[in-house]
Amino acid sequence: MNIPPKIYDRSPTPLYIQVASVMRQRIDRGVWSPGEKISTLEELEREFSVARVTIRQAIELLRQEGLLDAQQGRGTFVSHKLRRQRWFNLATDLDAMIANLKDNVLKRVHVEENAAPPDLKPGEGNLAEAYTFLRSVQYNKGEPFSVVNLHLAQDIFDKDPKRFSHAAALPQIMEMDDVTIVQAPQTLTIGVADPETATLLEIGLGEPTADCRLILIDRNGTAIYVANIHYHKDCFALRVELLDDAKQRRRKTK
User: CA–CA distance from 173 to each of 116, 127, 153, 189, 200 (Å)?
Assistant: First the structure.
């Protein structure tokens, strides 16, 4: 189906970037497979209803990203060396969240004690007396995939400042015998990369990110852990089994 030209007017984004986004999605979904020759310039011109120079700009952008390989005299092919896509599945319980951290490398980029407190929404507990702010980048196979902005209650941080400054806080908190977590609300939204996040994730300013907000509330109702996590859009997926074993058994007995 050819794309009607007026659809481009709904976005202020340059034409070639809009076209590249659709082509990138085709590669991501496997519509265009690794090693496959993509449509010709003429075919893409007709399909996207844009000038050839726009198609060339879109292809060049994807070539710079390593997704396409333009071969003179042969055409344009999908790269054989595509990055892993959608490999990170957002955890739906704390045990899974902690397990996700095991294969990742964490790099602290900022630690600030007695920082300004986080903004809490209704249902996210009460503020601690003071917080330490910790920003870190998580790497997998040498590539950054998430930026974590964490407000950690100062009294928790003071239990082991050195360890909290160099390792993921979540597993350490769950190992503490004198800390009991009674609530752990998690919210997922779609956002865009601000200058700090774009720099740390090595992506473009304003590119989409999957944003996760995780709060740990102790038995006193205090939000001791307030994390805002920004995931690289290409690594992220949310996979949930909606029919658990108990429900399957009930369905079979009906």
Answer: 21, 17, 11, 25, 25
β pairing state of 131-140 and 105-115: antiparallel
Over residues 189-212, the pLDDT tens digits come to: 999 999 999 999 988 888 889 999
Residue 12: other Cβ atoms inside 10 A: 5
Query: What is the set of domains in the chain, with CATH numbers?
Result: 5-78 (1.10.10.10), 88-237 (3.40.1410.10)
Q: What is the pLDDT of residue 251?
A: 53
pLDDT in tens, 166-190: 999 999 999 999 999 999 999 999 9
Pairing label, strands 75-78, 88-89: unpaired
